[in-house]
Amino acid sequence: MTTVAPVKNFDDVKPQTPWSASMRDRQMTLGLVIAAVVTSFVIVGITPMKGKLAYFVIFFAALLALDYTYSRLKFGKAAGVDSFFKTLFTVAICITVLPIVSILWSVWQRGHKGLHWTLFTQNMKQADFTGPVGQGGLIHAIIGTLIIIAIAVVISVPIGILTAIYLTEIRGRFSRPIAFLVQAMSGVPSIVAGLFILAAIVYPLTRHFNGFEGSIALAILMIPTVARTSEEVLRLIPEDLREAGLALGGTQWRSVALIVIPAARSGLFTAIILGVARIIGETAPIVLLTGGANVMNINPFSGTMESLPLYIWTGLLAGTPESFTRAWAGILILLALVIILFTGARYLGSKKAAN
Amino acid sequence: MTDEANNDITNENNGEEKAMETKNNSSLASVSAARAAKVGESRVGTGAIGVGLEARGVHAWFGQKHALANVSMDFWPGTVTALIGPSGCGKSTFLRTLNRMHEFIPGAAMAGEVLLNGDDIYAPGTDVTKIRLKVGMVFQKPNPFPSMTIEENVLAGLKLAQLKVENKNELLEECLTRAGLWNEVKDRLKSHGGALSGGQQQRLCIARSLAVRPQVLLMDEPCSALDPGSTLKIEETIGHLADSVTIIIVTHNMQQAARVSDNTAFFLSDGGPGQMIESGPTNEIFSRPKDERTENYVTGRFG
Fold first, then answer.
1. A210 phi/psi in degrees, rounded to 5
2. pTM of the predicted model, to two decimals?
3. Helix, coil or strand: residue B169
């Protein structure tokens, strides 16, 4: 026998989410967390385990134990294990996020005192690191970092992405050795890259420090990151799309340029971001190759150049409260710069996909 | 065309829609007979115009594995040919040798000749991209280019092959109309291809293939990822296209082969390389197969 749905007015039916946590569930979770907090205080109070870390460790251990016991008693063994792992992952995330939040917080706490409008308008020509905050600034370091990074990006992004295309699209005879070399190169310490440029370019050829040499050293560090990440991203593009391009009478190059790369666009932006993240804080090659400066130098091919990591380093070396404050302000600005660059790159990368 | 088949047509009221509903294998022959009558004798390979695409003793290997042995077939202009057979019998491999897509699989090798308008497409010095312009392909899974709009997808072939067209809008409308998609997308040509339903995406891929004006269109199980409604639409599209394009379609669905094709080839592998067991007019293959294995397959006794 069949039934036909009667015509009906559905206005009185409201959307519900019976699967989401009820008030009682939330109270129970809160109760468990409070119990874990109490346990951690009690145990730290009565046992020899002391210190901030002890509170955290005992709190998380107690939370896991209590959560497991509660679920096990109420819903049985399987639910207990399930609940245990759920809490374990939450705890793991907290442990991951904690250092990041802690870094951001301490940088802000120590750096914001050094923030002053002169930072963005002045250089250090007339000022000294040990002088009062408010005299001198780091505009020359910001510009220097941006120039050095920009040149490194211009050099390494095409090389890195073309390497990835060779590995994933052309798949030539040398794919294996190149993939191995790229992997090995990603472990090169930054000081080695700096020394290499020093020995290969500065001593035999230019005999002067300048920003461009620093950029080349940073590009050497950045290429493996860009190449490997791009390779992973290009491998995710379905074989179907490549074949569809070829089946329409495109050459391999046109199929890669018009279909594969646009399809991988946002992933390739991520590759560039990761590459920049690798090099933006590098200090060793900068110290070796671009030197430092008190004044603005916008010509990367002539003369030494200041950069943010170097500015921070100088500030910390000077060793007075004022210079420390300057250094922390520099760190704060470097972090802000990173966040601005990455947000911008993410935006550019996802703009087309969002349409 | 036999009397028996003609009777079937009258009984079926010459309607493909009604024929579509038939489910059991015994009626497959009558379904295909209905189609044969509808499209007319000229389409069933009597060859007034000359053969468009010919395979001559085609073999294929993947590494050491001999996947396909000695297939020879003619594909006449204006006909639809269905390749049927169980999985792993080499029919998709054969299809991919016809526009030189086979060679993209690492370790692939082949032997034999494929003649397009009399010229071997594997001859040294052949421009492969020109071959693939003339022999287009529609894939199993709908694969519109994700970074492109509907319009850009249809015209992608022009960009890829660097072709010039006088009126792009005209071509766009023509291709989408021939693929049976124009009315559904004409108001949103600038939106992304990925926003369409699976069936619409597949018709978009057909429109994309048509834009470079292929002489032959290869379809590798084009409906296997689609619902029955979309399948019906694609089959209608194939029916319309057959007037201007030679179509070769791989399918696992025997009703589909019976509904859309003029000729059918049955492939089978007995553990060794896949071979073509039998080919001929579709209604003959389904009603009076000469080989016992073909009969067993089309009646659903194995495979």
1. -155, 170
2. 0.79
3. helix
Give residue B162's identity as a one-letter amino acid code: Q
C-alpha–C-alpha distance, residues A130 and A271, integer Å? 40
Tell me which chain A residues have a C-beta less than 8 angstroms from the C-beta of B126.
Answer: none
How far apart (Å, rounded) are the C-alpha atoms in residues A344 and A40? 43
Asked if residues B60 and B265 have their Cβ atoms less than 8 Å apart, the reply is no
Q: Which CATH class is domain B3-298?
A: alpha beta
Where does chain A hold its CATH 1.10.3720.10 domain(s)?
Answer: 139-354
Q: What is the mean pLDDT of each run of 10 residues along chain B (303 residues)?
A: 41 41 52 56 46 91 94 92 93 94 91 93 92 94 93 94 91 94 94 91 95 94 91 93 93 92 94 93 93 91 67
A77: phi > 0 → left, psi -120 to 50 → alpha, else beta; which?
alpha
Cβ separation B147–A259 shorter than 8 A: yes
Return the closest-CA partner of residue A223 out of A286, A148, A157, A164. Answer: A157
Question: What is the strand order of the sheet B80-84 is part of?
Answer: B135-138, B216-220, B246-250, B80-84, B263-268, B275-281
Fold that domain A139-354 belongs to in CATH: MetI-like fold (1.10.3720)
Partnered with residue B267 across adjacent β-strands are B276
What pLDDT, in 10s, does the model give residues A89-106?
Answer: 998 998 899 889 999 999
Minimum-distance CB partner of B132 among A238, A246, A259: A246
Determine the distance in angstroms separating the CA of A209 from the nearest CA of chain B, rounded to an integer: 44
SS3 assignment, position B116: strand
Domain ranges of chain B: 3-298
